[in-house]
Amino acid sequence: MTTTTICRAWLIARKDGLRLGFTDHDAVLTLDGVAFRPDHGMNARSLMQASGLSVDNSEAEGALTDGAITEQDILAGKWDSAELTMWEVDWADPMRRKKVFAGSLGEVSRSRGAFRAELRGLSEPLNAAQGRVYHPRCSARLGDDACTMKLDGAAYSTVLDVEGCEDGRIFRFAMFPGYESGWFERGVLMMRNGQAEGLQGAIKNDTALPDGGREVELWKSLGIHPETGDRLRLIAGCDKRAETCRLKFNNFLNFRGFPHLPSEDWLLAPRAGG
């Protein structure tokens, strides 16, 4: 009877330095000082690999556990773009191994106590658009190196306690600092402590209420609902218009758009408008 001693092993390295090893073998394997454990409940589907620069396609799936990959870490984005390496290993002699995949985790989804992650090959970044986009609105992200805005001051961010939260999406405050209505629209809400610590959401609406209170609505519910008393931070938003950059942020010198670019109608029919 013929038997095999080949198993698979995965090493995931997060951006924060955490490294975890997984294997479909029934015992712990040690490679390069990392323990690859079989009890984390992670496995991968068959790899679809091609020659040249074609993207390798596969998926990893497994259980959400307290000791390995938790639901809160996924929601907080800690596993986004984590580096992943996969080997075929002779478990009788772990030094005999062959690397079969190197890349990163793509979209991670969760359902019923389990997760599923897309695997992206090393050629995936080649699909990203290169060069600059010529558009009337700003191409920079608020607060990045191109924008240069500092958002840690009181003018553009504030820290508050959660007073009321509906469905992890709508936050209501009885007392609110003196920001004009809509100041935080298109901005970010970030949880600073509690069970939802590290989670953040994009702000859809920021509405001043007649009684002096405030209602902040997110586009999407936070996966873990904050509790009363948890701390959060609100960061102002930007609609990428030149007028907003000049009047709201006083940062027009760093505006990365082209506000005087002719409209599409003019480009298609230049004589129509004179």
Automatic annotation (TrEMBL):
<dbReference type="InterPro" id="IPR011928">
    <property type="entry name" value="Phage_phiJL001_Gp84"/>
</dbReference>
<dbReference type="Pfam" id="PF09931">
    <property type="entry name" value="Phage_phiJL001_Gp84_N"/>
</dbReference>
<dbReference type="InterPro" id="IPR018964">
    <property type="entry name" value="Phage_phiJL001_Gp84_C"/>
</dbReference>
<feature type="domain" description="Bacteriophage phiJL001 Gp84 C-terminal">
    <location>
        <begin position="182"/>
        <end position="265"/>
    </location>
</feature>
<protein>
    <submittedName>
        <fullName>DUF2163 domain-containing protein</fullName>
    </submittedName>
</protein>
<dbReference type="Pfam" id="PF09356">
    <property type="entry name" value="Phage_BR0599"/>
</dbReference>
